[in-house]
């Protein structure tokens, strides 16, 4: 229970695509409840915000547990986005740090990054920001101890086991390895967020500056 | 229409918020003190969703370019309309050209300038609230500036000269010494991950609101809290009131402009019924968390609801009787 009006469901076990697909299944199922105001998917968890404080949260917890046990993982075909990246340079200045941490050459880091296919697990934190699953574990790099103060929107980043594209210009603790010119969020678009859960992303090197 | 003549930074257009878009990473925004806006809108006979100006810094000076009824709620501050002092929490009428000045509050932190019909900025994603991070909503997604012109809905027959008793005086304030703000909170998901001493400390000590506090969240100062062991949490959804504890051990209460997801351990959640008290607590104020159950948290909403119901009733009676005295039985519009 988070306060009186929200319940967080956390999936047991590791961060795998299957667990995330079960969370997606739970979203689809919970959408049918009339007392839901918002469903906020996280990474292997789901926040349910209710229109009114539920009087018997235990009943909802049981309902969630049952749903979790019985629902099959939900496959979302999603759309495929090909994102052109300018790797390295001033806008990907942490490439050297990723290279040092992983013991791989910058060229190798870039190759492993753009060879992968990524899936949008959840959109959140900032408007339009997608949490991406699919980073090659060999280039996983912990967040920086001192965040960049003003990382531009469109920076291609690595934060631990997660990959991302920063949605807003501002402070950011993830490692920048490149830059792309796409607009992740526009409130006036009929679908404001470019990415939706289940979408797949491929990064294509447009240029490499070491 | 209203023209802003003088403003300090951090003042914005807000309404009751923009729920429904957290799954796109868009936080709810909205007023920090929802109760104060509700009161203003009830006094003026506005719809619940009418938008207002939220002030966090002072002085703030506006000119009414068209006749308007207005009410300033949330705080007690020196207010003048031209040179005439006016009361907070009361409905006043301004003639075109009159200037309203809001001085530094004597009590409270955030003032709400509510006008009849509401501030008419475009609705973006279902709300007029300013979304500062996304740069949309309110006045082009930014803080108000001197020279800004705000549209208001045209007003027919205006009534004034009545007000509300400030909620802090009516609603039981459990606070013993009158200085410490007491906030009821439900233990959070990661409560048991903290050491027993830290759990005790969390409730027992007074936490000071630091200057690094704003609409995103309040950072608190006190003896740091420690976890039994370090953990790396996966990102999860956030709502206003969640109390997170970053590695340094000093809690942050997430508020209206919080990110929609976060990853720090959650020790507790302040109940919704008490969030307005936090919104009106100034930097430097001491707050204490009072452990409460889910049930108590729900019941806590009742005095607020009956206060608002009473107010709604009184305002409706007063307005109806004034209108019948003035020979009109309706305001001309549905």
UniProtKB/TrEMBL annotation, chain A:
**What domain of life is recorded for the organism?**
Bacteria
Entries under SMART domains matching the protein: AHS1
Task: Write one Pfam family the protein is assigned to.
Answer: CT_C_D
Keywords of the record, alphabetical order, are: ATP-binding, Hydrolase, Nucleotide-binding
Mind telling me which residue stretches traverse the membrane in this protein? Answer: none
Q: Where does the Carboxyltransferase domain start and stop, copy by copy?
A: 1-195
The protein depicted here goes by the name Allophanate hydrolase
From TrEMBL, chain B:
| Keywords, sorted A to Z | ATP-binding, Hydrolase, Nucleotide-binding
Family annotation (Pfam families): CT_A_B
Q: Give the matching PANTHER family.
A: 5-OXOPROLINASE SUBUNIT C (PTHR43309:SF3)
- The Carboxyltransferase domain extends over 23-307
Name listed for the protein in its UniProt record:
Allophanate hydrolase
Organism classification = Bacteria, Pseudomonadati, Pseudomonadota, Alphaproteobacteria, Acetobacterales
The answer to whether UniProt assigns keyword Oxidoreductase to this entry is: no
Q: Does the keyword Endoplasmic reticulum apply?
A: no
- Its Gene Ontology molecular function terms? ATP binding; hydrolase activity
Q: Which InterPro entries match?
A: CT_A_B, Cyclophilin-like_dom_sf, PxpC
SMART domains recorded for this chain? AHS2 (SM00797)
């Amino acid at each position: 229970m988070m306060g009186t009006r929200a319940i967080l469901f956390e999936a047991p076990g590791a961060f795998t695509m299957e667990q995330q697909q079960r969370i997606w299944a739970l979203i689809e199922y919970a959408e049918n409840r009339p007392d839901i105001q918002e469903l906020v998917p996280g990474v292997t968890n789901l926040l349910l915000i209710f229109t009114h404080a539920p009087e018997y949260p235990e009943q909802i917890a049981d309902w969630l547990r049952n749903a979790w046990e019985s629902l099959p993982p939900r496959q979302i075909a999603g759309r495929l986005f090909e994102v052109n990246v300018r790797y390295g340079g001033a806008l990907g200045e942490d490439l050297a740090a990723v290279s040092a941490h992983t013991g791989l050459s910058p060229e190798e880091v870039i190759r492993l990054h753009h060879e992968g296919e990524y899936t949008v697990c959840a959109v959140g934190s900032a408007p339009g920001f997608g949490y991406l699953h699919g980073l090659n574990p060999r280039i996983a790099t912990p967040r920086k101890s001192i965040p960049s103060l003003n990382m531009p929107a469109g920076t291609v980043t690595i934060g631990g086991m997660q990959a991302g594209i920063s949605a807003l210009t501002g402070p950011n603790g993830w490692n920048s390895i490149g830059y792309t010119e796409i607009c992740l969020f526009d409130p006036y678009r009929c679908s404001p967020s470019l990415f939706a859960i289940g979408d797949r992303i491929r990064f294509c090197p447009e240029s490499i500056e070491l | 229409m209203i023209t802003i003549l003088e403003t300090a930074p951090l003042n914005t257009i807000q309404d009751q918020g923009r729920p429904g878009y957290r799954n796109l990473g868009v936080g709810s925004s909205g007023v920090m003190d929802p109760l104060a806006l509700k009161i203003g809108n009830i006094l003026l006979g506005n719809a619940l969703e009418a938008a207002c100006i939220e002030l966090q810094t002072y002085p703030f000076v506006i000119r009414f370019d068209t006749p308007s009824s207005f009410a300033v709620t949330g705080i007690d501050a020196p207010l003048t309309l031209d040179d005439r002092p006016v009361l907070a929490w009361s409905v006043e009428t301004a003639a075109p050209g009159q200037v309203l000045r809001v001085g530094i509050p004597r009590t409270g932190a955030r003032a709400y300038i509510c006008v009849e019909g509401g501030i008419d900025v475009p609705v973006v994603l279902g709300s007029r609230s300013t979304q500062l991070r996304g740069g949309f909503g309110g006045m082009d997604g930014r803080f108000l500036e001197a020279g800004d012109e705000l549209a208001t809905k045209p007003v027919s027959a205006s009534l004034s000269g009545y007000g509300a008793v400030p909620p802090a005086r009516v609603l039981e304030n459990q606070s013993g010494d009158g200085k410490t703000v007491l906030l009821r909170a439900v233990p959070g998901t990661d409560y048991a991950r903290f050491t027993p001493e830290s759990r005790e400390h969390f409730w027992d000590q007074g936490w000071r609101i630091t200057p690094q506090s704003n609409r995103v969240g309040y950072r608190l100062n006190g003896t740091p809290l420690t976890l039994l062991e370090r953990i790396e949490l996966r990102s999860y959804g956030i709502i206003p009131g969640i109390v997170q504890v970053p590695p340094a051990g000093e809690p942050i209460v997430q508020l209206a402009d919080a990110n929609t997801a976060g990853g720090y351990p959650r020790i507790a959640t302040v109940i919704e019924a008490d969030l307005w008290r936090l919104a009106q607590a100034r930097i430097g104020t001491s707050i204490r968390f009072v452990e409460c159950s889910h049930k108590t948290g729900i019941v806590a909403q009742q005095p607020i609801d009956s206060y608002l119901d009473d107010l709604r009733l009184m305002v409706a009676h007063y307005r109806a009787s004034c209108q019948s005295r003035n020979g009109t039985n309706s305001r001309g519009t549905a």
